[in-house]
Each structure stands twice: as structure tokens, then as C-alpha cells.
Amino acid sequence: MRRLLPSAAAVAALVLTVSACGGGGGETAAPPTQVSDPSKVSGEVTWWDTTRPDSEGPTFQALIKEFQAKYPQVKVNYVNVPSDQAQNQFQTAAQAGTGAPDVIRSEVAWTSQFASLGYLQPLDGSRAVDQPDDFLPGPLSSTEYNGKTYAVPQVTDTLALIYNKRLLKEAGHEEPPKTIAELKQTALDVKAKTGAAGLALNVDSYFLLPFMYGEGGDLLDVANKKIVVNSPANVKAMETVADLISSGAAPKPATTESYANAMTALKEGKAAMIYNGPWALSEIYQGKEFKDKENLGIAPVPAGSVKAAAPTGGWNLAIYAGSKNIPAAYEFVRFMTTAEAQAKIAKEISLLPTRTSAYSNPDVQGNSDVAVFKPIMDTAVPRPWIPEGGQLFQPLLEGYQALVGGKSAPADMLKGVDEQYRGIMKDWS
């Protein structure tokens, strides 16, 4: 799933508009925590889903049918909105007070931003939040803003090295690379011995983070309110990315559509390795190289000089504060985030549950992809759950595009990103 986010300028403009005009809705009192007869709950719920409609959407639509069988008086309107458009579309609709869905599948970085703008219904004490102690601490932390809960974790994710076992073996490697140095050599061996590309890079900000974390870098020091993107560690990380390209270990990627290009190259056997997450697996298995699923390898991202680490991602379900169907929306969110629903999602499309109890479900334990990703997820680095968090990716994306396009050296790239961050985080040092 692509993680491109709207530009910082677009988001800033919306924030200014909200400051002048007010938020998208007020707080509504939570209904009773118990519903004696679910079949009596009524209403119409419009849900904006951000999954891939071809490979992931059918599983969620099947869950909707199960929900409607249990809640026959609730109609669910399913709308699939591309993940790189949903944030802006929801903000525009919420600010206008018309056209916003009752429930949105919100990327973890969007949730605190939407809450800060007054667009989300507080969920503490409501039917939407069932057994909060069962949720993994990382995903649960992304649902909170100013001491209140504004969403329920649906799935969680991180990045891994996903590779073609056949191509690595033909290049003389029985095991995936564990360090960046091994990654470079393995990629060069694949290119020399098989003719395929070694590593296909995705020019997307989220996919830069493993390189930064690997050198001990980060974007922000939230505890001390410092911008740290322009650090020696991150300069080293960007030099590593540039070297992978200049050495031929990774072909020079296009600055647009690189996600689709990398996925296609992997599926068709034209590239041996990519960085990607569990959301990509259902699509990858549709490729000719992985009709035999045993040919797909999944491993932790290779370590830099400090560690191996990838970012925490995932998706929450949140309710629009201006919804006219709050009770029905509570029931829908509750149903879609049960351990049983998460087990179905994990079994069919390998998305990682956010509930601890789901991992003991036989359907989850029977999915080898989930079993591989779970320990990788346990070492993932939390991202800053702050209202500005969703604005950090566009400047980094523009810098990444300039780097791979040969228009900016690593140090200059990060200096430019730092300058844009200071326009966003005005009171940070």
C-alpha cells in the first residue's frame, strides 16, 4: 500500500482554515457500554476503506456481510478510497461539514492530526472500544491524543526485506543479507549472475526510514522537541542509498510510480529484493514468480552500522465527529476490530493483528507470513504520534526524489528537508 501523503502546504492551509472556522463536529455522549440485542441497533454507516480493492478489498467486504447478518438494521455503504488520496479527501469533507464518511480507515500518522482538528469522535467508554487491554501497546498508542482515545487499531505493520529465493540461490546466496554491506554484495551478485536487478528501490519517504534508523538517525526527538533530520547519522544513511544506486546494486529508480515499478519487477523476476510490508503480500503472490509461495522469502531489513530497524505503521478505524449514525458506527468499529475479524484478515491477506489474543488463533498461527513478520514487528520503531506527524513525509519525499534524480547531494538534501520541517514545527529547536 502506498504511503504518499499530501503536501505540507496543503495540510497547513487546511489547519489555518480550521483555526478560523472551527472543527468538523462536536463531542457526542457515549452510549451505554452494553447492547442487549445487536439486531435492534439501526442506522446507515458509510465506511471509507483504503485497502487495495483487488487483493485486499474482498476480505473486508466479506466481513461487512458478516456484520450486516448480525446487525440487520444497519446498512453499510462501502467506499474504497486510494490511500494516497484519503487524508486530503477526508479533511476537505470534514471541514465542509458534508460528504465525510461515518467511519474512516485512518493511517496511524493521520489519527492525531484529525483529532487535533476536531474531526474525530472521542471513543473512551464507548461500545467502539472493546477490551482495550488486549491491544498491542504500539498500535494502541497511535489512537490517543491529549489523553483521549480517537480510534481503534485495526491492523499494524512494518517493513521487511522481501526477496526471490530462486534468484538469490542462483547468485550463490542461500540466506538473505543481514547487513547493508551484505545487501549491496548480494544485489551485485544477482545482477552479475542472473541478469536481474538486485534491489528495486521505492522512492517513498516511509521506505527511507530503515536506512535512517539503521545508522541511529531519526526525524524528530519528540521528548526534547528537536528536529534531528539533518544529522550525521542521516547523512550517512542517504550516502548509503546513493551508493546502492551508483554501484549498480539498485537500478536508478523513477521518481514517480516507483512503488508499482518495484512490485512489478519483483513479481516478474526482474528484481530479486525489495523493501515492503505485509500489506503487499497478497499482491506479490499474484505474480508469476510466486505461484509457488515457497519461493518468497521474508527477512528483517538489513542492519546499518548501528542496528536493523523499520518503522511502525498500520491503520486505525476512526469515527467522524459529525456523523449522524454514531451508535451504529460504534458497533461497526467494534465488530471490525474483534480478534475474530483480525484473524480472518491475517489468514486471508496476511495483515498483522493489533490484538494480543488474535495471535493465539489457529488461523493466525497457520499463516507463515504472519509468523515471520510478528518478531520483526516487535522491534519496529514507533513514529511520532503528533498532529504534525502526517506532514513530515512530503518534504522527505521531495528530498528523496532530488537525491535519486541527481539534483541534490545527501547533505544538501537533508538541509532542505530540515528547513521545511522548521516551517511545520515552528516552536521546535
TrEMBL record:
Gene Ontology annotations for the cellular component aspect, listed alphabetically: ATP-binding cassette (ABC) transporter complex, substrate-binding subunit-containing
GO biological process terms on file: maltodextrin transmembrane transport; maltose transport
Keyword Signal: yes
Entry superkingdom: Bacteria
InterPro entries hit by this protein: SBP
Keyword list, A-Z: Signal, Transport
Similarity comment: family membership: Belongs to the bacterial solute-binding protein 1 family.
Pfam family of the protein (one): SBP_bac_1
Protein name per the record: Arabinogalactan oligomer/maltooligosaccharide transport system substrate-binding protein
Keyword Repeat annotated: no
Any one Gene Ontology molecular-function term assigned to this protein's record: maltose binding
Lineage: Bacteria, Bacillati, Actinomycetota, Actinomycetes, Streptosporangiales
Extent of the signal sequence: 1-20
SUPFAM superfamilies per UniProt: Periplasmic binding protein-like II
